[in-house]
Amino acid sequence: MKKIILSSFLACSLFGSIESKIKDISVIPQDFSGYAVDLNSTFIKYNDEFLVRYYKPWDGDFVINRFNFDFGARYIANKTYFGDNKQEISQAFKEKLTLNTNPSAFPSAYQNGITIRNTNCRVMPTNKPFFYDFKNTGGGYPFDYLQNSMIHINTPLKIIHYSLDLAFSFVETPYVSGWINSNDIAFVSDEDIAKVKNMKLITPQTDDISLLDSENKFISKAFIGATFWENSQGDRYLFRVNEKDKAILTVMKQSKDNFTVIPELPTKENLVKIAKQLYGQNYGWGGSGENRDCSMLVRDLYTPFGLFLERNSNQQANENKEEIISFDGKTSDEKIKLIKEKAIPFATFLYMKGHIMIYIGTFNDEITIFHSFWSIKTLNKGRFVVGGSYVTSLKPGIEMEDYDHEHGTLLDRLVSMRVLGTRQ
Description:
The protein is an alpha+beta fold.
């Protein structure tokens, strides 16, 4: 493989200067203020359902889905995986994991809970990674295929089942289900649920803040997309845990400027403010390392504006069928024409299998997107790692000598777009 020669340009924007990774980042403006438009009424129709979907795990008539529980054992049964030592994971270990799910006792619980720290939701009850072959594209770091999603601190959930060793709990959160470390969960009383439902729901508008208690002691880091509560006096709350695993509603000593009430008005200024916070961050498959992948970036960016989204890119792109425009059978030129005619900046998702992107407008008449992505495929099944969230075209990296043209560009692989609301 020929060595890839990178441009020496620096990408300059209001975010400062960053070393160029691909030509797009050097050439295309990374300043969101040049793309964003006022979307004041675009998300209104979604706002009413936000709280309903957010509090769904705490519903008294919540229906348990056995399919979600059984998925994990089926998922690992007949595939070959490798551990972090690059050795094949044995069938014996996979069988041990399946046994630890305690399937014959499912469901063994039906309790309301809350996450008391940022935690990981896993496909099976283990923190050990499952990789595909490190030698193949899409195998190895960071693609741990048991990593479902990072779950923000203070996320409502329903505890449905416990592993045989009690180390893990199978839960349903508002947007994903799976196994969470039992020590990361506390039980919430019906009284406290009623209390917080009468408060305003808030989220950080500054990413990666430190949450402090009334005595100025550190509680946790919190990120845009996490949710907390604010009462009529302006006190802000989250749940902590006592020695009996009971959730205790606790006041945070936190500047009001760090939070915004959901839904925030999606003005141009507010869209830029949130997007700027999420720009240039490291890529994190399934939210690993408290970083964001493509769908977590999308979900967290729109949470402040009261748009509830699932965690999976396919669900995000295809949830409301009436909003979907298919690219089936369309040429690249036809796709570009449709996007330019129908897409709304910051209110359109572009989707290809396994990846979701936010349409933000055009630069020099070329479609521009904001997305978090790991790498660009190169010849001989290689990858050029970008590993972050940036503004690019639909052809990032195409200037590279080793670009895999046979595999195609993002534009070539687009299958649909979802347009939210209508143009204003």
